[in-house]
Write a structure and sequence with these properties.
By secondary structure, this protein is α/β, with parallel strands linked by helices. The chain has helices at about 40-45, 100-110, 120-130, 145-150, 160, 170-175, 205-215, 230-235, 255-265, 275-285, 320-325, 375-389, and strands at about 5-10, 15-20, 30-35, 55-60, 60-65, 80-85, 85-90, 110-115, 130-135, 165-170, 180-185, 195-200, 220-225, 240, 270-275, 290-305, 310-320, 335-340, 345-350, 355-360. The model is unreliable at about 175-195 (pLDDT under 50).
């Protein structure tokens, strides 16, 4: 039934609406509407847990040209609430593709709307800021002032995407099946090879991050975001990685407290990525705030006025630079580089212990890979600490 198009509406919280089409009859689907400026990587965006609860506008006008495959998913699930596109291509071509985007949308019943002016919509969001929205069939009814609609802003999305069980993985497991993981009960910690042992706190981790660590020979334990300090230390980690994730980092109060204890009492190298960066900074005493329309795309310049890297970013909150300047924090924890578009904090670094964080995605699937070296630095830092301990 892909030749049948159904009229659809996109209604924004401020009363603005756009008319378009969908490949099946929509019900009512709500979420926070955001835009992504990437020209590629729509499959990774669909399956990135950081987009939980969000309706994603793709600013690139043609979506679906390369189809989808079985290798590029960032999780086992589709996490976006809905997608908005100018055009969804009826044809696709790529040597790895297995299914067209149109077939994928229909088979997954993924809410969507296309045929609208996404340039106009993006300019509207940039002007007014991100807001809640619904997509629906014109015959459906929905009250934009419904209290349930406004509850989206107070939802702890991390709790919906974090792992429910602790699991272990290494390269030997993934050589057999890239999507298979051993749980802790399957293997005794005392029998593990003492290669670099990483505990990952899962706020909504992308598989690409795990693949980078596996490629460096790490043994990995992935734990829920609300895991205790004692449980983390039981696994005798050589390093700790705080993953990416969706929503407001302030909801992860237990994690902030746990990370604060790890910073002060463990002397374990810690790397924070995206939400992990925000959690780390909150644990250090900094503050975060919501950006007007966030940073979502593959071409964000990060650095100083002497150098820059092009980075992949996906976040709606940022660390307050003023919270560094107006406190004692700047003496021990420094903003090392900035987002060169708006000068928000991009990286932070502790001056005396092995703790650092980045607001962007160094694993960057589908790219760019300017910051890929950070994983090697993290592992080399762990090796150095182990050598002198």
């Amino acid at each position: 039934m892909l030749n049948t198009l159904y009229p659809s509406l996109l209604c924004l919280q401020d009363g603005t609406f756009y008319r378009g089409w969908s490949l099946f009859r929509l019900l009512v689907h709500s979420g926070e509407i955001v835009f992504n400026t990437g020209m590629a990587g729509y499959q990774e965006i669909f399956t990135d847990p950081s987009y939980a609860g969000q309706i994603v506008v793709f600013t690139y006008p043609e979506l679906g040209n390369t189809g989808l495959n079985h290798q590029d998913n960032e999780s086992r699930m589709v996490h976006i609430r809905a997608l908005v596109a100018r055009n969804i291509s009826p044809v696709f071509s790529n040597w790895r593709s297995n299914v067209s985007l149109r077939n994928f949308l229909v088979s997954k019943r993924l809410p969507h709307i296309f045929g609208i002016d996404t340039r106009s919509l993006t300019r509207h969001i940039r002007s007014r800021g991100v807001m809640n929205a619904v997509i629906l069939h014109p015959g459906s009814s929905f009250d934009l002032n419904n209290p349930k609609f406004n509850q989206l802003n107070s939802t702890n999305f991390v709790n919906t995407v974090t792992t429910k069980n602790i699991y272990y993985t290494n390269i030997s497991v993934n050589q057999k099946n890239t999507h298979s993981y051993l749980t802790f009960k399957d293997k005794s910690i005392s029998n593990l090879h003492r290669a670099c042992r990483i505990v990952v706190i899962d706020f909504g981790i992308k598989l690409s991050i795990l693949k980078k660590l596996l490629g460096l020979g790490c043994n990995i334990f992935v734990v829920p975001y609300n895991c205790t300090y004692e449980t983390i230390m039981y696994y005798k980690p050589d390093g700790l990685l705080l993953s990416n994730g969706p929503g407001d980092p302030a909801f992860a109060k237990h994690s902030i407290y746990t990370v604060r204890r790890l910073i002060h009492f463990s002397n374990i190298p810690i790397l924070g990525i995206c939400m992990g960066h925000q959690i780390l900074n909150l644990a250090m005493g900094a503050e975060t705030f919501k950006l007007k329309f966030g940073h979502r795309g593959l071409n964000h310049p990060v650095g100083s006025f002497k150098y820059s890297e092009i980075t992949s970013q996906n976040h709606g909150f940022a660390v307050s630079k003023e919270s560094f300047l107006n406190s004692k924090l700047s003496n021990i924890f420094r903003c090392n580089s900035s987002n060169l578009n708006d000068l928000t904090v991009a990286t932070t670094l502790h001056t005396s212990i092995p703790v650092f964080s980045v607001q962007y995605h160094p694993e960057a699937s589908p790219g760019p890979h300017d910051s890929d070296y950070l994983f090697e630095i993290f592992v080399k830092l762990i090796d150095l600490i182990k050598l002198v301990s």
